[in-house]
């Protein structure tokens, strides 16, 4: 297990990752120096970043953030990156729109303010650019020369693009049956793309093997050996949502669950905003969203279990199709602690939600966004989400990458000859 | 011709479109009140907006802009929109990244700063969101209830999305042979999409007929009867580029040509920045880019003609496939007046440029972006573009919408079983 728990012989002493002070075990709390490891040497628990966060002057910190770049790097004082990160070649993702969704709210019977955090505006059109940007800095700090990942699609594109901008080699691993848009997007940046005959969970297991093999030397797997750094990127969603609400916590958040990492890190981000005094503490509730065809966390929530039993995914929401979600137990804990819930929707409900969001707000989301909005709609109908509170639904991706989900019945209303008579005959006016 | 030249009986007296003062003929200079017309009653020349621009306090104006929203609405004092535009339901496009493209520059032998203005970050991932946002305000001002357009694809999606957000009906017209991504994106917002058996020029002619017919009453065609307002949106590209360069003019701009409107309005925007004192006057050169398979302006430029002879388009760059470009003569004039040029590239060169941009900067552009970068590369090789100056290449769209252009040879490097042996056999390490 030494590959999991011990730093390379690379010069990690010189590592400058800003306020990141150490790695800390989420289970037993043991601390380790910053290095490319992801599991605790004592208890094999997952590691996360511990910080020396700025304190004592929240007003000054807020001004510094507001004067920063229009990207996640405005939050550099709260991230595991060097202070000069914005000047390095990277995709500068983030600071995507928080859209006030009044027409959607009216249709859902929501009376409180409803927002969609629209991450389709990121450089490769998914929230993955946020996490990859952190992993890239860690890869540079640890001297890795190849950027890699296991991916359900969005991540492969984000890694390929980030590596291209940074001038690093990339090699990404995907299941062999992905949507064409995601495959082309993974490959177009010129890196290596390896399709694996198997599910995402097979791809993930393979990458864990590769990382322990000499073949994987010098490789930074953004979501394996760089995972503690990578995962912190999701906090920036929490930071932006609160800043865009005028430095306030929302009352309710609805977040998709793949590995569960995004949801747990959004919660971590909210807690760090409270700890630094950037927002005032108040209760908030976190809701997790899955597709029925891959709903191990939702099933565990309903059954009152603390553990998550792996499933074999079968859903159109391929970017969420992780049958064995690493952060599942933490998600259950957060949903229960905050008074939230975890729920799931069918593929039909996913497609219906995609169209609802497009029709009411002009936002074309991918299947994952359909899952999240579909679950929000379901929880509202059940009375689990309070329609009178400030609610944020997180849209993590872009409909152009999952055209197949809607293409079958989304085409021209009519095909005509270029004449008024032909138009009249079509009866559209 | 009354439909072309006379305002409706709608209450145009109450029209508040900010600093827009009147419509003015680009040929004879005659002025008309703000209304949904697009051709001069005296000489049938195209109309454009005349402004009462802010003057006398450029520093104050600059501060006001910099404190504005992170969208095109920061430039509301220079656009035909009401002052409270940002509070109305629209897609808030713009303020997209100006990417310093150092790796691309190195590969092209450019020594001066090279930038890509990356408009794929707009809400529907093309620059069209900028122009539609202006037309939407005009439609609201003139009381239109249906938003419409003729489109080569990107515009249809932008109109559908903007109408959905604003709660207007939409009906858009497209050629029947568009890329699937663009068709789905046009239709997913729930408006009507009419496919026309013919080329874009046929679609355009049909829309002009429809607008003169009772069938088209109450319809705002963003690029026909609302064209003078619509076209102004392209100025925001000029505004953003200069602000992002620290309120300076670039030396050279390379811009794609479809109708030619974008290029002429970027030039107009630069001149307005000079007129208001927001930037210091200095020479700049404007270069236009076309695909060889639809290069009427480039052919006229090379031949030294002042008029543009229409062509029948045949190129993979469908979003630029306008065989009879309305603003062609103005483009020729601007390229010659500023010391620029107009050139074209083959479909092969387009694909090669798409891949070059993806590989060096992690930006996946559509075919139109391949045209623009391809022409920039060609003009550099010829010595027509000066490699030592500040150059901006405008990327107007997103590669996900034209997957077919690269899909044939952009896929997995290898397909393997999820084992180290299978990976080793693939010989990729």
From TrEMBL, chains A, B:
<keyword id="KW-0663">Pyridoxal phosphate</keyword>
<dbReference type="InterPro" id="IPR050147">
    <property type="entry name" value="Ser/Thr_Dehydratase"/>
</dbReference>
<protein>
    <recommendedName>
        <fullName>Threonine synthase</fullName>
        <ecNumber>4.2.3.1</ecNumber>
    </recommendedName>
</protein>
<dbReference type="GO" id="GO:0004795">
    <property type="term" value="F:threonine synthase activity"/>
</dbReference>
<dbReference type="InterPro" id="IPR004450">
    <property type="entry name" value="Thr_synthase-like"/>
</dbReference>
<comment type="similarity">
    <text>Belongs to the threonine synthase family.</text>
</comment>
<dbReference type="InterPro" id="IPR036052">
    <property type="entry name" value="TrpB-like_PALP_sf"/>
</dbReference>
<dbReference type="Pfam" id="PF00291">
    <property type="entry name" value="PALP"/>
</dbReference>
<dbReference type="InterPro" id="IPR001926">
    <property type="entry name" value="TrpB-like_PALP"/>
</dbReference>
<keyword id="KW-0456">Lyase</keyword>
<feature type="domain" description="Tryptophan synthase beta chain-like PALP">
    <location>
        <begin position="93"/>
        <end position="397"/>
    </location>
</feature>
